[in-house]
Amino acid sequence: MSSESSSPAKSLVTEDWVGQVPKVDTPFETLAYLKRHAPWASVLVNAPEKYIPVLVPYKLPQNTTENTFLREIMPPTVPHHIALYHEGLSSFPSPDQPSTQVVAATAAREFGTIFTLFALTSLSNGYADTAHGGLIGVLFDELLGMCIACEMETFAFTLETKVAYKKRIATPKVVLGRGRIIKEEGRKVWVTAELVDGETGEVHATAESLWLKSREGMARL
């Protein structure tokens, strides 16, 4: 890979949008669930000026078969799923040393950090009381795709993703995802992400991914 970077990125945050994704209010029922089951998440969900809630695309009504797996099959497994955009690098909940998976990109190309909160039920299990590894891959794909949608002016498609499993995710559990773009070169975009314990910062799994931008222009949701 070339070490050269693109020209400085312009912010795609406007009054109502973050890139291709509209800003939204976090549903009350999700706020109530997080308050009961993941009080550590209050730092994120109670600061919308810093951690901007954005629409999770598959929750849009569809008249086609697009996203039927996520929209129809996954909700009992992951009943609460929200996405938040932070302008700049953030390693929450670790305040001092950012993870190696979300190291800042070159100074000429600074991107924000996407956070996701996934509430996993026991229906996500592979082994007893343990989230299925295949589901973790699905969660990563959603998180990585949000990084693209919030930062790029066009859609992109997954070319490859490498997942490393570090520590099992015990269920039920609200798991924190965080990811960001680290490099852009032509139509190729490199993205990294993690699933972590939102209270301790312990890493459950990491992902490194390569995406290819569409030749088409920006298409907001």
CATH topology: Thiol Ester Dehydrase, Chain A
Count of distinct structural domains: 1
Tell me what portion of residues adopts beta-strand conformation: 25-35%
- Going by CATH, the architecture would be Roll
CATH superfamily: Hotdog Thioesterase
Number of helices: 4
Distance between the termini: 32 Å
Membrane topology: Peripheral membrane protein
Protein name: Acyl-coenzyme A thioesterase THEM4
EC number: 3.1.2.2
Family: Belongs to the THEM4/THEM5 thioesterase family.
Q: What features would you describe in this structure?
A:
- The chain has about 220 residues and is an alpha+beta fold.
- The protein has a single domain (about 15-215), classed as Thiol Ester Dehydrase, Chain A (Roll).
- Helix content is about 20%, strand content about 30%.
- It has helices spanning about 30-35, 40-45, 70-75, 135-150; strands at about 15-20, 20, 50-55, 80-85, 115-120, 155-165, 175-185, 190-195, 205-215.
- The relative contact order is 0.19.
